[in-house]
Design a protein that fits this description.
Elements: H1 2-27, E1 29-32, E2 40-51, E3 62-64, H2 65-77, E4 81-93, H3 95-106, E5 112-120, H4 124-129, E6 133-136, E7 141-144, H5 157-177, H6 182-189, E8 201-204, H7 206-210, E9 216-217, H8 220-242
């Protein structure tokens, strides 16, 4: 009887691991629930190119915003999930999709922390700064540049006004969620001496902190410790309110 229970428990564990592996492979998400603090943390990865309304090449690594947005809504609705960790290694992508993800993250009531790994370029910048606290590894990079458009562009005043509106939305969001000033961010965007045949700036590790974009340099251990600290602060505040 004891052996049957042990086998059943092992089978359930194997099924759970299989489910987690499949979820990571399909969506880049997983629930972290084995920590000593007993705090359930939802891990989300923003990898490759952020896909918008159009499907990208099947061979390209993409993050689909229609996968991320419902999950963020489910996280907000969940009593079990206490915080969110966001790992970023993205080249950017669709502006509207990227801003939608950033707005959803910034509006969560749960504590959130982001960690920039290889890079968080272009529209990845608003996502990186949308969390309560942000980290970047020492070799991580961020490319700051103006809005770009693919395909045919009609060279009329209305088109340029539309470009400016989009750029103002991105700049406004970034500046309201980190320490960089609008004038400085725009100067980094329009730098001409860094990128070949383009305008913009590449910032590496500590440089992003010096500019006031990212909060600190650190890896996964520092990011997880910070998230558990933020969750603990929320739980202590809730206990005080109940008393």
């Amino acid at each position: 009887m004891k052996e049957e229970k042990t086998e059943k428990k092992n089978e359930e564990k194997r099924e759970e691991e299989k489910y987690k592996d499949a979820r990571i492979e399909q969506t880049g998400q997983v629930l972290l629930d084995k920590n000593k603090e007993k705090q359930n943390v939802h891990l989300i990865t923003i990898i490759g190119e952020i896909e918008g309304h159009d499907n990208l090449n099947s061979s390209a690594k993409t993050t689909k915003y229609e996968h991320i947005l419902p999950q963020l809504a489910a996280i907000e609705d969940s009593e079990e999930i206490k915080g969110v960790m966001v790992l970023l290694n993205t080249m950017g992508g669709d502006v509207e999709a990227g801003l939608a993800i950033a707005e959803m993250l910034s509006s969560l009531s749960k504590p959130t922390v982001s960690l920039v790994l290889g890079g968080s370029h272009s529209i990845g910048v608003p996502i990186a700064v949308s969390t309560d606290y942000s980290y970047i590894v020492p070799t991580g990079t961020m490319v700051i540049h103006p809005v770009r458009m693919n395909g045919m562009v009609i060279g009329v005043p209305q088109t340029f006004d539309y470009f400016k509106q989009i750029q103002d939305r991105i700049t406004g969001f970034v500046c309201s969620h980190c320490g960089i000033k609008k004038q400085r961010l725009e100067a980094l965007m329009m730098e001409t001496g860094v990128l070949t045949k383009d305008v913009g700036t590449i910032l590496v590790g500590q440089e992003t902190v010096n500019e006031g974009i990212i909060d600190a340099v650190g890896g996964i251990s520092a990011a997880m410790a910070k998230l558990h600290e933020l969750i603990g602060n929320v739980e202590n505040k809730n206990k005080e309110n109940k008393n």
